[in-house]
Write a structure and sequence with these properties.
Helix content is 18%, strand content 28%. The protein is of the alpha/beta class and 217 residues long.
């Protein structure tokens, strides 16, 4: 069993979620409110370690009226144990789970008292095992907020059920800018993940697209 996973992201019209310098201020205020309403509805929110290092996110419900108990459980996929000890992800605003690989689990010693530690895989966290663990922890709905490498790893494993994208009217360009899905990619278009468009609408300056993932493993 695994949580129902919703990938949510904002990107430029040319598919960038961050510039090569890590700048990622894309969403308009209306979209930020939409995102925080979604955070309030889910049981957990997951990011990769690169997002933690680049953005130092809180991953809480703080853009709308809310209480501390409205904050979802925060999950960081951190195979090499690089989470900075002063990260806001480790504050007491909400519970946090750090997923780390077996070969690097000793690096989690610094934050054992600040987060629950999940260990699987040797060099890389086994995402299927992590999803099973989260489901058993009571996380039935999970919001995935990237970054681009984790996004691809999740969708390649067939672990994403739904995708919600805010497209901003801007062009970032740059071959080294982060796209919505990076990683190794697929070699042939016939292997590409297929989606069904469920909804679309304008929201402030942005345009929202909502898809269901078709060919999950």
């Amino acid at each position: 069993m695994k949580p129902y996973v919703i990938l949510n992201a904002a990107m430029t019209l040319d598919g960038k979620i961050a510039t090569k310098t890590g700048s990622s201020e894309i969403s308009g205020s209306e979209d930020l409110e939409r995102v925080h309403k979604l955070r309030k509805e889910v049981d957990g929110i997951m990011v990769g370690i690169n997002t933690v290092i680049a953005d130092d996110p809180r991953l809480t419900v703080h853009k709308i009226a809310s209480k501390k108990e409205d904050n979802p459980i925060r999950i960081v996929v951190d195979s090499k144990g690089k989470t900075p000890i002063d990260s806001r992800i480790l504050n007491n605003d909400a519970d946090t789970i750090i997923a780390i690989s077996g070969n690097n689990q000793e690096k989690a010693n610094d934050f054992y008292d600040k987060a629950d530690i999940f260990v699987s895989g040797k060099e890389q966290v086994n995402l299927n095992e992590l999803m099973n663990y989260l489901y058993k922890k009571g996380i039935k709905t999970l919001m995935l907020e990237g970054g681009s490498t984790l996004n691809f790893s999740m969708i390649k494993e067939g672990l994403i059920d739904e995708i919600k994208i805010a497209i901003a009217p801007m062009i970032a360009g740059g071959k080294d800018s982060k796209t919505l899905f990076d990683g190794n990619g697929f070699d042939f278009m016939k292997d590409a993940i297929q989606l069904d468009l469920e909804n679309s609408y304008s929201l402030g300056k942005d345009f929202i697209l909502e898809y269901k993932v078709k060919n999950k493993i």
